[in-house]
Here is the input.
Amino acid sequence: MESKLSKAERTRNFIIEATAGIFNTKGYAGTSLSDLTDATGLTKGSIYGNFENKEEVALAVFDHNLSKVNTIIRNRVAQAPTYFDKLMVYARVYDQYNQYVRTNSFPKGGCPILNTAIEADDTNPLLKEKASKAVLKWKSNIEEMIKGGIAAGEFKPEIDHHQMALSIIALIEGGIMIAKVTDNQHNLDQVMKTVEFLVSQMKI
Here is the structure.
């Protein structure tokens, strides 16, 4: 039988869940201690009694938000009947992320990889490393899907899976960035059509 969480573990999880949307929306630098205490109702001592500092909270929050995204994608990939459909899960999930935000399935603030990478690339090595590992894992997952599609006879055997995986990620993250900065979901819709076209070109 799975052991119950300790009080300290429950408190840590509560802090992570309560501040997840704040960090993902305001960023590490923009999130203040008062933001954390207001969101949790805890004192500074209580928060730093469970985490060494704000950075440790932010790192745990990134893992939490990324896990939510990965769970959505993993569940939909498992239901997709073809490798083409599996690859298109990424485009369709991110294209519909406003729907997931409204239902609390998707992290508030959008894609945690994009948000963290933009802020932390020159300012926070630990958060940058988290975002880098997430991108590389994403790339690896897409490459495996492409290889699977080639082996199944769905995709052309000459496809450069490395180049294709990077291109798909760049389009998705770039589309999200443009949609956010312009406050126009239609821009993301247009980019996702390009992703679909790119993936469709791999089919035999």
The chain has a mean pLDDT of 91. Residues 62-200 form a domain with the Tetracycline Repressor; domain 2 fold (CATH 1.10.357.10). The two ends are 49 Å apart (CA to CA). Residues 125-151 form the longest helix (27 residues).
